[in-house]
Each structure stands twice: as C-alpha cells, then as structure tokens.
Amino acid sequence: MSRRTLKLGAVLLGVGGPGQHNTWLDPEIPANASVDVNWYIARAKEAEAAKFDLVFIVDSQFITRNSPNHYLSRLEPLTLLSAIAVHTGNIGLVGTLTTSYNEPFNVARRLYSLDHISGGRAGWNVVTSGDAGTAGNYSRDEHFDYPTRYGRALEHVQVVRGLWDSYEADAFPRDKESGVFLDPEKQHALNHRGEYFSVVGPLNLERSPQGQPVIFQAGDSEEGRDLGASVGEVIFTHAANLAQAKAFRAELRERAAAKGRDPEGLLTLPGIQLVIADTDEEARSKEDARLGTKSFDRALKELGRPFGWHDFTRYDLDAPFPEIGDAGERSFRTQANSIKKLARDNGFTLRQVVQHLIDAARSPFVGSPETVADTIQHWFSEGGFDGINVTVNAPSEFALFTDRVLPILRERGVVRSEYESDTLRGNLGLPVPANRHTDARHPAPALAP
Amino acid sequence: MSRRTLKLGAVLLGVGGPGQHNTWLDPEIPANASVDVNWYIARAKEAEAAKFDLVFIVDSQFITRNSPNHYLSRLEPLTLLSAIAVHTGNIGLVGTLTTSYNEPFNVARRLYSLDHISGGRAGWNVVTSGDAGTAGNYSRDEHFDYPTRYGRALEHVQVVRGLWDSYEADAFPRDKESGVFLDPEKQHALNHRGEYFSVVGPLNLERSPQGQPVIFQAGDSEEGRDLGASVGEVIFTHAANLAQAKAFRAELRERAAAKGRDPEGLLTLPGIQLVIADTDEEARSKEDARLGTKSFDRALKELGRPFGWHDFTRYDLDAPFPEIGDAGERSFRTQANSIKKLARDNGFTLRQVVQHLIDAARSPFVGSPETVADTIQHWFSEGGFDGINVTVNAPSEFALFTDRVLPILRERGVVRSEYESDTLRGNLGLPVPANRHTDARHPAPALAP
Fold first, then answer.
1. Which of B199, B197, B207, B168 is nearest to B185 (CA)?
2. Residue A235, beta-bridge partner list
3. How far is residue B52's CA from residue B9's CA, in Å, rounded to a whole number?
4. ipTM for the complex?
5. pLDDT under 50: residue ranges of chain A
6. Dihedral sign, CA of A373, A379, A383, A389?
7. Which chain B residue shows the shortest CA-CA distance from A173?
8. Other CB atoms closer than 10 Å to residue A210's CB: what's the count?
9. Which domains does chain B carry?
10. DSSP class of residue A131?
11. Where is this region: Disordered (chains A, B) (predicted)?
12. Which of A106, A108, A98 is nearest to A134 (CA)?
C-alpha cells in the first residue's frame, strides 16, 4: 500500500440510514440537539480528538411536515460552523450552502470569513436545491429546472473561486512605518459577465489561509456527476456495495481526467452506516432492531420526497406501483427515476417497493470492530473510496468506532495518527490552487527537458 | 430621574470620527485587526466586563480604493458574531445585514441561528446599500433607487419578523415517551405575497430565546426616519450638538407614536467620539493632534463617497463648490444634499467645504473623566439620547472610558452595575413582542374596568 491514508469525515446529526429519522428518540441524544450549539461543539471536539479530517453539516431551506424531525428546526450551517471553529483547532469545517438561492458574492464572503476565523479549515458543500417547494421561500413561482440548477451551480462556483482570487497573498503590506496598507497592483476585480451572474468584485476580504477553501459536492445525476468532475475536490456519495462504490469512484476520476484535471485532486467519501458490537452476531441483531424502528408507514411517506413530496398513501399498496407522470421532474429526479425503474423492472407493487427500500437500508459495515476494520480496509485498498463519512448521532456509538475500530486501522497504517497540516486542504492532501493573477504574472518556470 | 438607565453600545473597529480612517496605524492595534477574530473576541470581552449592552459590527458589500483601509478587508458580520457569541455570555451581538442584496428567508435563518447560539443576544442592524457600485457585485446593472431601497427594506423586515413567528414557543413537545416531536397546530406558514417578496414559509427553525431579535436601524433621510419609526427598536445616529440630538430623538418618538407605537419602545443611540485625558486641556490637545492626522487630501477623496465616489480632486479648490448635477442620487442622497446645501448657503469654495467637514469632526465629548461624565449625563437627562455607541479601537482609549468615566456614571445611578437579563431585549428594557399566532388564538384578557 502507498502512503495514501483513509480520510475521515463526521456528519453531525445526519440522516439517510436505518432508523435515523428518529435519532431524537435516542436516550443519549438531547431531543433538541439540532438547535443546541453545545451539542455540536462537543461532538466536533470528539471527532477532533479522534483526528478526523472534518465535520460536515447538511442543510435544506424548505420543510414540510414530512421532513425528518430534526430538519424541522435546525441551525444554519455556516453560523454554526463559525461557533465550532473557535472551540476547535485542527478539524475541517464543511458547510452546505445552496447555489440556487444564494448570491455568489455573499457565499464567497461567508466561506472566506470562516476560513479566516478557523485558520484555514473551511469547506463548501456545493448543492442545488432539490425540493421544489424551496422556490416559494425565495420569491419565485417556479423551482429552477434541472439544467438551470446545474448551470447556475457551475457558474456560481466559478464566480466564488474568482472572488477568492481577488487579492494576492501579499496584497496587504500594512506597513505602519511607510503608511502603505494595500498594494493596489495586487488587488484584482473579477468583471465576470456570465449566463446567470454578473459580478464585478473585488471581494472585500483578503486572501485566506487556504486561499481556496475546499469544494465538496454530492449529486448522483448526470448533471451532478459532471459538476463534481468539473469543480469537486471531495465527492460525498453513498455506496450500497463495493462494486458500485468502485464504479462510481472510477467514473468520477475518469470524468475529471477528461476535463484535464489530475484525478488525485478528487476524493470520494461515501457516507457509511456503521453498526458495531462485540461480535458479528450481536452487530447483526443490533441492525435488525434498528431497522425495526423504521415503520412501514414512515417509509411510505418518505418515498414521496424525491417525487416532490408526492402523497403515496392514497394508493392501493398491493396494486402495481402507481403511474405518477412527471412528478419529481424538478425535485430529486435521479432518485425518482431509479425508483420508477426498480418498480418497472421487477413488476413491484407499491408495498414491494417500500419494503425493498427498507431492506436496502442494510449496511455493509456491520460487525465486530475487527470485521468492520477489515471491510473498510478492503474497500479502501480495492479503490472503493478515498475516505468515509461517518454519522455522529449517539456519542457511545461514535466511540465504538473511534475507540475500537480506528486503533486497528491505525495499527495497520490505513489511518494516520496525527494531523499533518494546519489546514483542511493540507490534511486531505489536496493540491493548493495558485492564485490566477499571481500565476499569470509569474508563470511557473518550464521543467527541464 | 426615573430608573431609566443609559444604554451602552460598543462599535468594534468603527469609522466616522476624527482620524479613524487610520486606526490601523495605532501602535496598539494589530494592523490586521479587521480580519483577526481574536482581536474582536478580546474587545467584546472587555465590553462585557464593563457591562455594555451590546457590541456592533458595521458592514458594506462594495469597496473602492478610496474605502477606509480596514473596510478593504474584513470579516462578514454574522459569521464573526457567531464566533464571539460562544466566548461571551451576556453582551448583545448586533450585526449589519443589507436588505438590498439578501433574501429575507436567509436573513431570518441566520439571525435566528445567532439568537439560538447566543442564548437570546442577537440584534439586526437593518440597512439598505448606499454605495451604488454594490449593484455590480449582485448581478444587477443598476443600483436600486431610493424609494425601492426603502420599500424593499420595510417589506423585508416585515417578512423576516413574520418568519420568526413561524412557531409558537411550545410548538416542539419533543416527548420521547409519546414520540411527539412537533405539534403541527403551532407551526404556521407565512404565505406572504407583497410588492417585493413572496415567501411561503414556515421557517425551519423554532422560536428563539428572544422570539424576535432586536431591530436596529440607522439612516437620516426622510425614508430612513420613516423606516426607523416603523420598525426600529434602536436607532443608530450621530449627534453634533445637544439641540440636534434632542430634536432627532423627539422627532423619531413622535413619528413612532403617529404610527401607533409606544415611543418607549424606540431607543436612540448616537455614535459618539470620546476624547478623554486627565484634564480638559490635555484632552483638547489630544483631539487637536488626532484631527491633524486626517490630511486634507484624504478628506477631499472621502468627500466623494456620498456622491457615488465622485472624484473631487479634478476641481479647482478655490473656485466655488462645483456643480455636479445629480451625482449621489442613488447613493447617500441625504448626506450629499446636505453638503450641497452647506456650500450653497455659505457660498463656500471646495476647499472651504472640505475644511468645514474636517472641523465638524470635533466632538462634544472631550475632556477629563468628570467633564465627559457630566456631558453624557447632561445630554441623557435632557433627552438627547437613550444611550451611546462608543467606538472601540485602541484598548487603552476604551479603558479610559470604562475605568474612569463609567464608575462616575454608575455612582450617579446613570448606568446600571449589573446585567439585568439574559437577553439583549431584556437588558435594553424593550417590550417582548407576542407571537402573532399565539396572540390571535389566546387574546389577552380584558383589563378590569
């Protein structure tokens, strides 16, 4: 094995796995954890003590009564991360901000402010808003269609990155003796005029410790993969099995290479569900019990989300999966289409589709600490992922991973024992993008032949 | 005197007064203070130790090379305040966010998140963007005209306040035994459709400790005063002399009363320049020295700002004040007009206008600790203000106020000795607005006849 090590992300109060919609029922988790800054700070400190690369905060800007409980009421990610920043020292801070309903100038400032405040630990999870209802919270009658959502997203990231290059690293001499504060030659307007945005610049914030905060991206659609390959440096995804994980990672790397990028600058980190116990058998029973807490009725309701919160409760459960036209066309289209395909290919009834989705929530990462460490190491060495995103809900469950699985992986050299850098970019081993202006004026010397 | 006490605000790294554009040259101030979170946290802690009601962060979203030096590069206010929130416990946290280039849903979430994180200490300084060039950073060809800026601002605040009432205080039972997380009867959509915004809601964040964070406002124009009287709870202003200060406060209170508001719910806090030394004479010499550091050339350049950064250096200094048409019509119109009027009424040359503005920067609050305490007490008891906003640049200067002036004012009962509440609203003695939905369902009982 090379010296490449497994990257570790901690999703704070995440969803997506078995039973996670009811995390608040866990006796260990304060029922109001999603609005309790101290809960988040404590979890981030635990992740930092275990030398995790980053904590990650998900987001959405629209709720329905079907939304997962703690999504109904939660703190805005960047505001939260700034509070976490000043109570931690090494761990990366990755926040979700949508490109659909934010101005690039504001996004650039806020992430750059977080990068300054944290000493170079900011990451931006670039998303487009999937829930069609979001438009109603932003003075729009209609949600952006798919091509617009992704077209805006790509241009948005390009504008933000351009604004981040507004100043060269030494643009502010701030020489008290000579009275020179700014070197105006090293301040650069952007003068961007594109299809979706026109931004003159410059940003009103000097170059940050990372220069360019790290770009995270998730999104499984064709458009999402293209965006990830274009601008993503870390890709969040999910992985049902090793073959799928390998194929996804390989595809993203190929797409990035086809765009002229070094694929080593693109890390794939699926979110994985860990179920750890003393023995494999106990771990399997634990997962069974957990899946049991996810009721069929709840799953039936949640099936509606990718289809724009379509109401499936009104159909006969034992009739063939209903024909629902283009519901979902402006929401989570890829997920909706794959559910339709599943039903069509298998001739499933509505009940069978729901049961299939419940069963599919089973995790490949279930077992004793040894078994889980083996599985992670195997997937990693086979090229299934560059790192993993672990959900932090109950602290005792997270401790099973940090105290019992991580030591095995460290022993084997899969995971590093100490932070290697002061910045998130440095710890992830990602290249440092040069400032386009500095580069233009001082081109890199040609390599010897 | 009633039990009403003087409110205290601390402007962190403010501008506006004599010599403040060169604060970074002060040997006590780190040259990069405007991007140093630790500098801000330390100042906020000092203000909290002195029992200040609030710290205040100004903002703008556009810079030119004429911008004050530390405006060229500074942290975004809300991101900064969240970091300060978790290192302080009592002091209010007031951030500037423009209504011109932010979505109400995002503003409501961010301020409410700060209110949760700080345990009820958030305040919003509502502004419209005055610099016409700001439009260029937000994909607009033209800056909003005056009526649009203020029309948007009023409706923006109304939408934000409506979103803050999305949940009644007991909307989230989060009862682990019964499994009830939300009481949907206590969740309310907004369904706002106005001239500038359409916002469905509800907000995805439950009622915060203050319920309604405190609304701050500044703006001297007719439209600005009207906005302050409509929605402001604390008005930031400036005051050249007692008569002007009294007139401004009286006018705002009358306007508020005319709108059916209790004028006691509207506090006026001018920003004041303190120049304190052991004796009155030393203090006057100190101000002279400070004014001397503001060069004529610098003042000539800055004269351009209210006129949309009009370049005054191209005119003959000793000719009559130039005729510049409607420059400034979309910028700081009131300020521009008052300068034009000053020139016209006095027949001033350009040089005389600039010199007049330099001289007008002299402060009424110059003297020994006794003198300054006397002046503040006099203005306060005469109805010149409800509190003051003190600029915090050099810590030793701020300490002259906290250690030498405040004890005198405390001794006299003008300033309280301890925080009286856990919230900013509580410390300012402002009424707690009821949730419109709770109120509607449970009308207050009629008073006994």
1. B168
2. A217, A268
3. 6
4. 0.91
5. 1-2, 18, 445-449
6. negative
7. B31
8. 27
9. 7-280+364-431 (3.20.20.30), 295-359 (no CATH)
10. -
11. 426-449
12. A98
Distance between A362 CA and the closest CA of chain B, angstroms: 24
- Which residue type, as a one-letter code, is found at position A326? D
In angstroms, the CA A46 to CA A38 distance is: 12
Residue type, A227: L
- Please give the DSSP secondary-structure letter assigned to residue A175: B
Torsion angles phi and psi, residue A399, rounded to 5: -65, -30
Reduced to 3 states (helix: H, G, I; strand: E, B; else coil), residue B270 is: strand
DSSP B292-330: HTS-HHHHHHHTTGGGTS--GGGS-TTSBPP--TTTTTT
CA dist A11 → A40, A96, A182, A214, B160 (Å): 11, 12, 40, 16, 30
Whether the pLDDT of residue B140 is over 50: the answer is yes
Q: SS3 for B6-58, per residue?
A: CEEEEEECCCCCCCHHHHHHCCCCCCCHHHCHHHHHHHHHHHHHCCCCEEEEC
Q: Answer yes or no: is pLDDT of B293 > 80.
A: no
Handedness of CA B139, B143, B145, B146 (dihedral sign): positive
Q: Taking CB atoms and an 8 Å cutoff, what residues of chain B touch A24?
A: 174, 176, 181
> What's the gap in Å between the CA of A319 and the closest CA on chain B?
31
Mean pLDDT of B147-163: 96
Report the C-alpha gap between B171 and B187 in whole angstroms: 7
pLDDT digits (tens, 9 = 90+) for B398-422: 999 999 999 999 999 999 999 999 9
Looking at residue A414, the DSSP 8-state letter turns out to be S
Q: Which of B60, B71, B73 sits opposite A172 (nearest CB)?
A: B73
**Averaged pLDDT for residues B417-435:** 95
Contact residues, B window 206-265, toward A, CB-based 8 Å cutoff: 206
Torsion angles phi and psi, residue B255, rounded to 5: -60, -40
Return d(Cα B117, Cα B276) in angstroms, integer: 36
